[in-house]
TrEMBL record:
HAMAP family, sorted: CpoB
Start and end residues of each stretch annotated as Disordered: 117-137
Protein name, per record: Tol-pal system protein YbgF
The UniProt record lists the keyword Signal: yes
Any coiled-coil regions, as ranges: 26-60
Annotated organism of origin: Thermodesulfovibrio aggregans
Gene: ygbF
SUPFAM superfamilies: TPR-like
Length: 280
C-alpha cells in the first residue's frame, strides 16, 4: 500500500509539473488507483484465506497420518488378541472334554454301584426285633439326638435306622439334610464304602450348597480310595477343588491328589535287578 501511495503521489507531482494532463484524465487516474487499492485488499484477503486452508489441510493430514498409524497399531493388537483367544479357546475345549470324560466315568461308576447294591439282599440270620409302637419316639429332634448317641457308641446300624426314620416321616424337619449326610457316615464307618458313596451322592444331589457338602464329596473320594479305585478317587477330589475352592476340604483333596500321583509315580519306577555274584 505504501508503494501504491508513493506511486500515486509521484504521478500527481509529475502531472502537476508537466502541466500536460487535463482534469478528466487526472480523475480517471485517481479512479484507477482506487480500483487497484481495492483489488490489492481483496488479493490480501484471498491470500490469508488460502493460508488458513493450507494450515488446516496440513493439520488434517497430520491427524490422518496419526490416525492411520493408530489403526495399524490397533489392527496388530487385534490380531494378537485373536491369536490369544484361539489358544484359550483350544485350551477351554480340551479341558471341557477332559472334564466331561471324567464326570462320565464317575457317573458310570456310581450307576454301577447303585445297580449292584439294589439287587435283592440276602436275609440276615439275626434281625433286630421291631420296636413296639409305644416304644418309638415321636419327636424328630429326640430321634436325631438318639441317633447321634448311637453314632458315638458305634451302633451305626441303629443310628442309620433312626436317620432313615426322620427322612421318611419328618420331611419338614430342619435337620433333614444332616440326616442324609449321617447315613453316609454310618456306612463309611462300617466300611461299606459302596453304600457310603451312594448315600453321599444322594445327599449332594439334594443339597449341593449345604455346609456339609464339601465334606460329603471329600468322603466320597476317600471311599473310592478304600475301594482301591484311585483313578475315580482323583476325579472326585478334583471336583472338591473345583466346586469348593476356598474350603478346608479342598486343601485336603489337593493333598490326596498328590498322594495318588506319588503312588502312581512310584509304581512306574523300574525295579533294579540285583546281579548275583558267581563264585569262581
Amino acid at each position: 500500500m505504501k508503494k501504491i501511495r508513493i506511486a500515486f503521489t509521484g504521478i500527481i507531482a509529475s502531472v502537476i509539473l508537466s502541466g500536460c494532463v487535463t482534469t478528466g484524465e487526472f480523475e480517471q487516474m485517481k479512479s484507477d488507483i482506487a480500483r487497484l487499492y481495492v483489488e490489492n485488499n481483496q488479493l490480501k484477503q484471498e491470500i490469508s484465506e488460502l493460508k488458513t486452508r493450507v494450515d488446516k489441510m496440513s493439520s488434517d493430514l497430520s491427524s490422518a497420518v496419526a490416525l492411520k498409524e493408530g489403526q495399524l497399531t490397533l489392527l496388530a493388537q487385534t490380531q494378537d488378541y485373536v491369536k490369544e483367544l484361539q489358544i484359550l479357546k483350544g485350551r477351554f475345549e480340551e479341558n471341557s472334554f477332559q472334564n466331561e470324560k471324567k464326570f462320565k466315568e464317575l457317573s458310570d461308576k456310581i450307576a454301577e454301584l447303585q445297580a449292584k447294591l439294589t439287587q435283592p439282599a440276602q436275609p440276615s440270620e439275626k434281625q433286630q426285633p421291631a420296636k413296639a409302637p409305644e416304644e418309638q419316639l415321636k419327636d424328630p429332634k429326640a430321634i436325631y439326638d438318639s441317633a447321634h448317641i448311637d453314632m458315638k457308641n458305634k451302633k451305626f446300624a441303629s443310628a442309620r435306622e433312626k436317620f432313615q426314620e426322620i427322612i421318611k416321616n419328618y420331611p419338614d424337619f430342619e435337620l433333614l439334610p444332616n440326616s442324609y449326610f449321617w447315613i453316609g457316615e454310618t456306612y463309611y464307618n462300617e466300611k461299606k464304602y459302596e453304600d457310603a458313596i451312594l448315600a453321599y451322592e444322594e445327599f449332594l444331589k439334594r443339597y449341593p450348597k449345604h455346609e456339609k457338602a464339601p465334606g460329603a464329596l471329600l468322603k466320597e473320594g476317600m471311599a473310592f480310595v478304600e475301594l482301591k479305585d484311585k483313578k475315580t478317587a482323583k476325579v472326585v477330589f478334583e471336583r472338591v477343588i473345583e466346586r469348593y475352592p476356598q474350603s478346608k476340604e479342598a486343601e485336603i483333596a489337593q493333598q490326596k491328589i498328590a498322594e495318588i500321583l506319588k503312588s502312581w509315580n512310584s509304581d512306574k519306577k523300574p525295579t533294579k535287578k540285583v546281579k548275583s555274584k558267581t563264585k569262581r
